[in-house]
Every structure is written in C-alpha cells, then in structure tokens.
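Please review this one.

:::
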Amino acid sequence: MGGAAAPRVGRKRPFQGQLTAFGEMLAGHPFATDRPGATHEMAVEYARALDAYERATREAVRDPALARRELDDGLAALNRLNVLLVGALPGDPPPPPKDARLDKPPPAGTPRPPVAAVGRTKPGLRDRYTREQLLLRAGLSGLACYITLVGVLGSWQYAVFCLVGTNFGVGLAAGGGVFTGWPVAQLRGALKGGRVVAEYTGTKRSGSGGTSWQQHYVHVRPDGGALTYRRDVPSESRAPLPTRRLWLVAGAKPEMFLTPLALLLGVPLLLGGTALTLAAVPGTLILALAHHHG
C-alpha cells in the first residue's frame, strides 16, 4: 500500500514546495501600505498576491489545477508590485530568490522568453484534473474505442445503435436509480423507526382563517427534540385522546405516501435502462463478432 501511494505524493511535493516558497516571499516582502511612496496601485497588487496565495492554499488538495492557476496569478501580481517598487521595465522584473525555484510568469502583455524544453515541468493528469473528471474522460475514451471496434468488426449501424443505446440506457438507468433509491431510503427509515407515544397539547385552526381544526400531539425524543403530529378534526369540540401511539419513521421529512408511486416509476426505468445498456455494451460487440465470423 505504501509503495503505491508514493508516486502520487511525489507529484504533489513540487507544487507544495512552490506554494511554501511563495508564502515565504510574501511574508518577507518589504512592501507596506504605510511606507513612503506607496501608491494605491501597489496596494492593489499586493492584496491580489495575498488573496491568490490564500485561494491556492485552500484549493491545493481539493482542486490542484485551480490552485496552480491561483499561484500563477499571485506570482504575476507580485511581479507587477516589484516593477512598481523598483521602476523597472515590464519585461525586466527583478529575479526571484535562488532557493525559491519558481517559474514566475511575466506581467500581462509581455512576450514570454523562450524556455528550454528540458527545464519545463509538465504537471501530471492527477494535478490538472479531479478524480471525477479523470473517470469521465476514461469512460468516454473507452466507449469511443468500443464503438469504433464494433463498427470495424460488424457494421456502422451497430456502432450507431451502440452510441444511442448507451446514452439512453445510462440516462434511463440513472433516473430509475434515483426514483428507486429514494423510496428504498424511506423504507429503511420506516424499518429503523418504532412505536412512540405522543401526548395531546391542544386543538388549533389549520392555517390563518381556516375553518378546519387540528389536534396536536407532541412526542419528545430522548435528545430533547420535539415532534408534532397533527390530526384533522371537523370541529374544536371533538374530544381528543390524551395520548396516541404512532410509528416514528427515521429520516428528515419522510413522505411514505409517495413510496409506491416512486417505485412504480423507478423500477421500470431502472430495469429498462439496464437492459438497453447491456444490449449496447456488450450486446453490439457480440453481434459484430458473429457478423465478422459469419
């Protein structure tokens, strides 16, 4: 396990080192808003560099690609601040510290000097994309190769059916999974619940100016929270029971009355989408191989 994780950690170290060095440069920078000769433009560039460093630090783990862009923006802002401080030309910014080892981008509008290809460090795919983006790209690439193989071995009509069937099948199966998963979660909440006792607290009108009435029963949970059950009655004079036994369903705002409808919609969509997807992958490849050998 340790050997498999080492390359990924190693790829993150160069960027973490650059980010740390940039933070040290900001901490040791001589600029201050109250120094003699400081202008509003200088203060703006310094604030941009600080904000970019904070954003890059927050996104270093969650989105490395965004963190690198923020670091580049911060370096560019710091370069512009240095140009304003020393009065140098935009194309000749002061050199960075030797131990920083940072590739600072020049200010906007300045031609980038040629850099040897050997000295460039191209970030890896895991640094430029999130895990979900990598999985999506890999899935689309695999599907493209699969469709091409079906068209070459069988016919391009099979390939077109594979493309359409996969898209519709996955979409239907995903929608069916949502409709099916929601009532399943509701049923699990019902099974995890149990019978509780709710005490009568009073009869009130149902809404402002309403003509119907509701009897309120309150159940106090062990953690101190209160749950209110409302029972519709035709009039305020209807005699209430002092207590009622109810079945408490675990979960936030459970709506068990929609469970049958959701199952009626979700199960056919899930089964139909799965069947259509399997007909496209690997069904079309089986047909293509049979056509090729036939």
